[in-house]
Amino acid sequence: MEKLVIVRFGELTVKRGYTRLEMERLLTRAAEEAARECGGAKFEKEPGRLYARGDVECLKKALSRVFGVKSVSPAHAAEFTELSDIATHAKQIWGDLVTGRRFAVRAHRVGDHPFKSLDVAAAVGSALATSGGSVDLEKPEVELYVEVRGKRAYYYTEVLEGPGGLPLGSEGKVLALVSGGIDSPVAAWMLMRRGAHVDVFYCNLGGTLALLHALEVVRRLLSWSYGYNARVVVADCGPVARALRRGVKEELWNIAFKRALYKIGAEAAKRVKATALVTGESLGQVSSQTLQALAAVEAGIGTPVLRPLIGMDKDEIVKIAQRIGTYEASVKMPEYCAVFSRKPRKWARREEIEEIDLALHDAIAEVANSARMVKKRELEEFVKSLSPPRDLEIDAPPSDAVVVDLRDEEAYRGWHLPGAIRTDVDDVLTLVDRLGRDKTYVFYCYSGGLSLDVAESLRKIGIKAYSLRLWRTSSPNQTRDSTSQTDKYTDL
Ligand SMILES: Nc1ncnc2c1ncn2[C@@H]1O[C@H](COP(=O)(O)OP(=O)(O)OP(=O)(O)O)[C@@H](O)[C@H]1O
């Protein structure tokens, strides 16, 4: 008797002809890459399924993450000549397991045999009853599955659900705009599940630490990308934030920034030959996700924008993020606040969109041209090459530090840390020059992304600067957790 893993195909089994062959080829290729995590496997093909031989415990987990797979079962397999052989094998495998327990045998049969599935269940049930177990088909403590296919029978108790969907690569290529937050990795995963090769675009506004956080989310997302060496396009979006603060009305910053993202994303999509962009927007979640705002953001972009989460509730999205393993990293992602506007508009007129495009034109071109591209298999090396400044984030300012609030005047008037002075981000250098480059500076903002970026920039020119970890501790509404984003129309 040998041990193996049964890998059952999902939707692709309704496909026919060349499409079916191609999908099976892609799924097998992805399964082979997944199996490498377990030291490899020997695969055997059968219509509608694969059998994998190797480290069964490891393989069952890895193969249940391959798109196109409906379910996976670690199983014993053995050839038989007569029905009594199946009963004998079942007793060898499960004799100890059923002792003193209520069990049910679920039998299934494919091929020509002189017996029916019910006969298999009855024979196995009687054999196991002699081991001290009792049959209970309604409320069993343990369910035993026997699948008879041709000359072989498979015995298993575990059925692990796979992701379903279609094999990766069967449905073209898209570029997912991934912020590192909760939603966009889920949106990207959903396109992977429907068979698209997904490349990733990330626009960084928070310095090296934010980039590292985002890349951790991306790494987790791409751990699903078996069989495809996905590309990750990383852009430094600082020039866009600066152009926007200089040339766009504050109430339109949200719409303008998203529009810039789409435009840079559309350029990156051309570079990686992706047919569409994917975003994590869900209708009405925040002010830039109203219908009018979405229309303003995507007007004339020239590349289709797919929004697989558009009709989903936040808690549904969170559940998927938890299941696919991106959630934990996403909630640690600092929200950018370099383009935070207190009263964001939910719409923009056509002339305003034209003004935005004019104001951001050069910055968008600069960012698009300087974006870097890294392949999934080089991501680890790339991450190692990034060296974030040490101890950039602190929990409390040193007593001699100058504490600087980077939020707007209204927020500062409402509340600020004792002794903090306020400045606009674009005036930070002027402030530092006025107060002295030899002092220690501690910055805070709405959510941490901007203060990290400012502190890191100052460190680069030799100034002792820190970002206060205020945004993770002061108020749950200032983190990227699920509750903060369910507040309708509040862009953090
Ligand atoms: N810095 C970024 N880099 C790449 N894409 C981004 C970035 N910020 C936002 N996006 C894209 O724009 C979409 C809308 O952004 P917004 O901040 O309104 O979304 P969100 O609902 O908070 O999504 P997420 O949870 O993914 O951040 C995101 O879902 C994502 O697809």
TrEMBL record:
The active site is at 445 (cysteine persulfide intermediate). GO terms for cellular component: cytosol. It catalyses: [ThiS sulfur-carrier protein]-C-terminal Gly-Gly-AMP + S-sulfanyl-L-cysteinyl-[cysteine desulfurase] + AH2 = [ThiS sulfur-carrier protein]-C-terminal-Gly-aminoethanethioate + L-cysteinyl-[cysteine desulfurase] + A + AMP + 2 H(+); [ThiI sulfur-carrier protein]-S-sulfanyl-L-cysteine + a uridine in tRNA + 2 reduced [2Fe-2S]-[ferredoxin] + ATP + H(+) = [ThiI sulfur-carrier protein]-L-cysteine + a 4-thiouridine in tRNA + 2 oxidized [2Fe-2S]-[ferredoxin] + AMP + diphosphate. Keywords: ATP-binding, Cytoplasm, Disulfide bond, Nucleotide-binding, Redox-active center, RNA-binding, Thiamine biosynthesis, Transferase, tRNA-binding. SMART domains: RHOD (SM00450), THUMP (SM00981). One of its GO terms (biological process) is thiamine biosynthetic process. Pathway: Cofactor biosynthesis; thiamine diphosphate biosynthesis. InterPro entries: Rhodanese-like_dom, Rhodanese-like_dom_sf, Rossmann-like_a/b/a_fold, ThiI_AANH, ThiI_fer, ThiI_N, THUMP_dom, THUMP_ThiI. GO terms for molecular function: ATP binding; CCA tRNA nucleotidyltransferase activity; tRNA binding; tRNA-uracil-4 sulfurtransferase activity. Residues 397-480 form the Rhodanese domain. Residues 57-159 form the THUMP domain. Coiled coil: none annotated. ATP binds at residues 177-178, 258, 280, 289. It is found in: Cytoplasm. Its EC number is 2.8.1.4. Pfam families: Rhodanese, ThiI, ThiI_fer, THUMP. Catalyzes the ATP-dependent transfer of a sulfur to tRNA to produce 4-thiouridine in position 8 of tRNAs, which functions as a near-UV photosensor. Also catalyzes the transfer of sulfur to the sulfur carrier protein ThiS, forming ThiS-thiocarboxylate. This is a step in the synthesis of thiazole, in the thiamine biosynthesis pathway. The sulfur is donated as persulfide by IscS. Belongs to the ThiI family. This is tRNA sulfurtransferase. The gene is thiI.
